[in-house]
Description:
- It contains eleven helices and no strands.
- It has helices at residues 8-13, 25-30, 48-85, 91-121, 125-146, 151-170, 175-188, 191-210, 218-227, 235-258, 261-279.
Amino acid sequence: MRTAYRNAFLLVLASILLLQSCTRIGLAYRHLDRLIPWSISDYLDMTPEQRSTFDSQLREQLSWHCRTQLPGYLAWMDRVHAMVAERRVSEPEVRARLAEAKQAVATVAEEITPSTVEMLRGLNDEQVEELAASFADDRRERKEKYLDVPLQEQIDERAERMQKRLETWMGRLSQAQQMRVRQWSASLGTQNQAWLENRAHWQDALLAALEQRDSGQFAGRIQVLLQQRETLWTDAYRQAFATTEQAGVDLFVDLMASASDTQRATLLKRGAALREDFAGIGCQD
């Protein structure tokens, strides 16, 4: 995915579609090609024939997604809403919602795997080279943005990003809540390093698979890359992910415990508006 950093807490606050950057759900659906793992249009130029096939498959999968997955998202949002409204935000409840969200993502990954295999198998050598060069540029840019700054600056910027996102949903944070966000960010330490190394590791695995895209094992390798990404995680990232997820859960629980009536009402109102947007989507057969 193109999103640089998404933690468990934001998954709870927003949606399993990773729509934090979209203000309207309809807009997100029209650009879902940028949200699913197999979109490589940001990294290489497709031929007209490839683009036509991609667009056709995308329309089919958007229709499938809307018809079969959207109802589950609405029910999931209802459970999140009830959890907050009834003041029962606890670690077990939050973890239950996370597990449901992860399963929804896994379902999408399974659905798109066959078309992903087909698309990637159709790349020519020049496109694979272009993809490798684009990955290299991507790594350099992210390294400059997230690593080539002092650790304290990384921590400060992470806290600022989180506070901005939280205030979008809850309204202005209290001083104590701001301090809790800073504590959360500091607890993640050098998470950026592990994340970027793991991202590069996955990209290298994809490029290695593409070198053998005419082999009988290619489909299985892409299936692992999309559906079993955790099996390819580096040890450092596996540990960092567990730490990050726990820190996100703890932060959400603590913030909800300290939330004012106004903050809680703001969160519920904005969550209800998000659900309304989802419910208003018209699915195409």
